[in-house]
Specification:
By secondary structure, the protein is α/β, with parallel strands linked by helices. It is about 30% helix and about 25% strand. The longest helix has 13 residues. About 40% of the residues are buried. Belongs to the UDPGP type 2 family.
């Protein structure tokens, strides 16, 4: 079995961010910062660490700030240089010519539809999908860990994370087979099963490595849960035709699509920093007295 290298990553970033209004009224939700870095930058850096060569953003209207973030900032850079200020804080953000690539999802028809919008750029190659709302903190990063596993087993790999039984109706859930270390054979996938009917408590936390055949399935995919074209439904059709595994992350996950999760991410990452951690810790301990 020849295992093609994963060179491309798709970032579905067309969402409106309604759960964070009014903050996201005129700002992309992916540009919300955790400490001093936008969510989208954490996700892009995670992909680059894994050897991804081409970043593909599936965007919508009003995402100009996101596109500008990864471009040259001429006025800012020229002013900082003229004043003798270090550019270290923004070095490495600008990508090489030809990456990122931007495609539009004109209608909010679901995650599966967003991924399908990138089909011409993905072509006939395996590709990663990263949802920036899900902030994964670990060394190496989640996609790097998944790529290492993929290079051993090939096929399709999705992130796997244990959640409480009461949470399973919120996510895509894995029906597990054989377990080998952090790899779990995927027998079936269920999108947002009704409470009490989930086949396990292993959810898919927004990280995927998929074969290009999923694009052919998405071409004619019917609407599923929530009246949207679900990526989970399309992936489920690959099970039995190609190797399919879940991979459990060795690190921390923060759901930054949720306000409480977003605040927790800011607190956790701030406490881990040498420059601001002590001050934040002292403040937090004072609040809890």
């Amino acid at each position: 079995m020849t295992i093609k290298r994963v060179r491309k990553a798709v970032f579905p970033v067309a969402g409106l961010g309604t759960r964070f209004l009014p903050a996201t009224k005129s700002m992309p939700k992916e540009m919300l910062t955790v400490v001093d870095k936008p969510l989208i930058q954490y996700a892009v850096e995670e992909a680059l660490e894994a050897g991804i060569e081409q970043i593909i953003f599936v965007t919508g209207r009003g995402k100009g700030a996101l596109e500008d973030h990864f471009d040259i900032s001429y006025e800012l850079e020229a002013t900082m240089r003229a004043r003798g200020k270090s550019l270290s804080a923004i070095e490495g953000i600008r990508q090489k010519p030809g990456s990122p690539v931007y495609v539009r999802q004109q209608e909010p028809l679901g995650l599966g539809h967003a991924v399908w919008c990138a089909r011409e750029i993905v072509g006939d190659e395996p590709f990663a999908v990263l949802l920036p709302d899900e902030l994964m903190v670990g060394k190496p990063g989640f996609i790097a860990q998944m790529v290492e596993a993929y290079n051993q087993v090939g096929g399709n790999i999705v992130g796997a994370l244990e959640v409480a039984d009461s949470e399973t109706d919120k996510y895509g859930i894995i029906s597990p087979g054989t377990v080998d270390g952090r790899l779990t054979e995927v027998k079936a996938l269920v999108e947002k099963p009704k409470a009490g009917s989930a086949p396990s408590n292993l959810m898919i936390p927004g990280r995927y490595i998929l074969q290009p055949e999923v694009m052919r399935i998405l071409e004619s995919q019917e609407k599923g849960a929530g009246g949207e074209i679900q990526l989970t439904d399309a992936m489920a059709q690959l099970i039995g035709q190609q190797p399919f595994h879940g991979f459990t992350f060795d690190g921390e996950r923060y759901d930054c699509g949720d306000k409480a999760g977003y605040i927790q991410a800011n607190l956790a990452l701030a406490l881990a920093r040498a420059d601001i951690g002590p001050a934040v810790r002292s403040f937090a301990e004072g609040l809890l007295r």
